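Dissemination and training. As part of the outreach component of the grant, students in the summer workshop were shown how a complex can be specified as a set of sequence lines and then modelled as a single object. The example used during the hands-on session is reproduced here so that future cohorts can follow it. Participants entered these lines:
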Amino acid sequence: MVHILENGEHFHADTREPEPEPEGFGSGFSINDHHDLLIEVLKRLDGRSLGAAACVCRQWCAIARNDSLWEHLCFRHVSPPPVGVRPVVSALGGYRRLYMVCVRPVLSRLKRRRLGGESEVVRRVWNQHEVELSLSLFCVEYYERLLVGGGRVAGDSPASSSLKFLCMPVNV
Amino acid sequence: MGPTPYNSSNSSSSACSSSTKPPPPQPPDQMDHLLAGAGYKVRSNDLTQVAERLEHLETVMVKSSPVDISDIGNDAVYYNPTDLASWVDSLLTELNPNGSGSGSGSGSGFVSGSGPAYVSDPVMNDMNNVYGEFGQQVVTPIEEDVSIRLVHVLMTCAEAVQRGDLSLAGLLIDDLQGLLGRVNSGCGIGKVGSFFVDALSRRVVNSPQNGVVQVDLSAYENEILYHHYYEACPYLKFAHFTANQAILEAFDGQDCVHVIDFNLMQGLQWPALIQALALRPGGPPLLRLTGIGPPSLDGRDSLREIGLKLAELARSVNVRFAFRGVAATRLDDVKPWMLQVSPKEAVAVNSIMQLHKLLGPGGPRGPPVDLVLDWIRDLNPRILMVVEQESNHNQPEFLDRFTESLYYYSTMFDSLDACTAQPEKTLAELYIQREICNVVCCEGSARVERHEPLVRWRERLTGAGFAPLHLGSNAFKQARMLLTLFSAEGYSVEENEGCLTLGWHSRPLIAASAWQAIPKPSVVTTGR
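and obtained this result:
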């Protein structure tokens, strides 16, 4: 159940959350008081919905930016999750950035090349090689920002040009 | 009737970009000077007719039974082909006594080609092959003619240059400028043609015996062009990723590793290796990187700066890292002691498009490449990674080099056309243009872009005491995946006896191979 939120907007995610109950009905349960529960729910979202969730309110924004959520998203269908990756990815800019800059374009590009399979499930399933390639590209991108910026790079700076090719429309 | 490429007064080329000036129309009675350059005398206004009748001759010869042809052979009557018109007439009457007399354009049995008519002379033999490369473009019939003529004139001009006939070459270059004006210079043959015309004209205009020396770019400008080439097309990325994968596998289980990079540039290859080493099971080794690069003339110590950035990255991911820069103008200036290789460490030598620069004229002790390969072998590396352009631009004859490079760079420009990002594309083209200029204009020690194909590198490296290492399936899969990420669908990765080649539409352009040094048999070393 979702109460009316801080800035007055209702949020209807395309998730399995129940419809918000009308005011005055319920038990006074607010998801915003139970972060771990909220995180469990958000863990099951796909990237786009997670991004949308971050736009709901400041609290959700802070929670949705939690890197472990994005880590879960990146490695959801790769088993076993690679060890030792976390400190590396954190150092290079974090999982959220990894997803935005590398994983999402790589997956969508690879999806276009596969025969059929438009479903969300197909999009999210990827293998070890693709993970490794994304990580390498991510590292190169971090390095390029180092070259340009000359110093510590903020996690939110725009992607450097090395990965432009991932974002260009596919010329099939 | 078929189109007429030799009718130079055909100005209905409005489909093309605006021309600067049309080629000067030749007086009809004069001999066509292009063919004159090749040794044939044909009047300009006869060209169409002669072309058609040569086509007819070919059809007749093909259709004739073998008996008829051998009759001609046994006759031992030789017609001088210099006067093309009468020569073809004579042959036609020999073969086809009932056949058409002169001037019957679309006679019976005459296949009026939908393609352009062409005159078969020696220079044209390669032309059709080259045109096949340009067949990808959608061109109007008029443009097609101009394109074919452009290639034909390019070849003739190159042949004139080879013969030393610079005055004819100069005339032809004027022709070429005119033709370029009539062709779409935004893509295809127009664009790559303009670079070749530019290079030829430089060669013709300032041609000392020793060849033109290219204007040197500053290291900074070089880096910019290189970086944009890196981004616009996948060739360098393919090279880096494949090399890293091979080096990673060669370093398996080693605790102290040392990579020697023959051309550091901005060190774009190494972050991915550092990250892969950081994540390898068992933890990262101690990584030493020695980067070789040109000395900086403007006070910046660029080698050191790159080393610092790489060290920062390595520190972020907890890989123990040490960097050393070696500044050298040429690779053969580097001496092994400068690299400070320790016997306990596993060494990898990485040469991305550098070895071909050593194939130039050597000193008294032999060609530079053999010396360098020798000291590489002395280092006993676990892997020597060689990535080179897959083409033969080092042939002794200028015309062969020219033809081959026209093929090669046309394909490369085709693949670049798939890149839509500016300014990457333009600067990448500039980078390639410098290569073209070096291959075409320069000679002697100034000509450094002496590309050789994989087969020759295999011979050379095996002869120098290296054994091939097969690049595994991981490298292949990674390369294929990398390519699917690029927007165009024309790239292809192929495996060739343990080496990987990346090409455009099945023409390989870059070849990557890995080698291992065979330790020298232990003999008593005499002083060198």
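The radius of gyration of chain A is 18 Å. Students were then asked to discuss how this feature might be tested experimentally.
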